[in-house]
Amino acid sequence: MNQAPQYKVRVTKDHLVFSAAHFITFNGTICERLHGHNWRVAAELSGPLDENGYVFDFIALRDQLQKTVNALDHRVLLPTQHPMIQVIEENNEVQATFEDRRWVFPREDCILLPVANTTAELIAHWIGQQLLTVIGSRESSQIDLVQIEVEENFGQWAICQLRVS
Ligand SMILES: Nc1nc2c(c(=O)[nH]1)N=C([C@H](O)[C@H](O)COP(=O)(O)OP(=O)(O)OP(=O)(O)O)CN2
């Protein structure tokens, strides 16, 4: 017996890249130096076809991802839910502290992300959540799976899949 076809759309573009600085902690108490990457983003949506024969309009997906990428471009990414990195907004500045280290940035240069660490995985999750708010607001949308991929360095991709309830 033939199975019903499954459909996905996938968008990746040369301009879906953001340059941003970050530092993460790993293995407990090791904290990286501030450094930057050119982070590449791709998205895949799965679901049934709509009346156009689309899973989701490529153009709408591309443009929405571009908005998120633009918001992250040329920024410092700071985690607001890290157990050991404290991030405080004061006047027009942001101060981050970890043990005896302290970084101070202009507020407008920073993006404060509600994540526990600015790993590629958790950045992918956050981007997926941004996308879900837009997809979820479309009454006609029947997307059942959102997959966001983030490349931190050449060939090093983190992938986050979010099931749409
Ligand atoms: N699964 C993950 N592994 C690692 C992550 C991550 O987000 N998810 N992140 C890091 C670090 O942020 C590290 O800075 C990655 O940068 P990269 O440039 O790839 O690492 P190197 O220090 O080896 O840099 P080179 O320029 O390639 O020498 C680590 N792991």
From TrEMBL:
SUPFAM superfamilies for this protein: Tetrahydrobiopterin biosynthesis enzymes-like (SSF55620)
Cofactor list: Zn(2+)
GO MF term (any one): metal ion binding
InterPro entries (UniProt xref): 6-PTP_synth/QueD (IPR007115), 6-PTP_synth/QueD_sf (IPR038418)
EC number: 4.1.2.50
Reaction equation(s) it catalyzes: 7,8-dihydroneopterin 3'-triphosphate + H2O = 6-carboxy-5,6,7,8-tetrahydropterin + triphosphate + acetaldehyde + 2 H(+)
Pfam families in alphabetical order: PTPS
Recorded metabolic or biological pathway in which this protein acts: Purine metabolism; 7-cyano-7-deazaguanine biosynthesis
Keywords: Lyase, Metal-binding, Zinc
Family stated for the protein in its record: Belongs to the PTPS family. QueD subfamily.
Protein name: 6-carboxy-5,6,7,8-tetrahydropterin synthase
Organism: Gimesia fumaroli
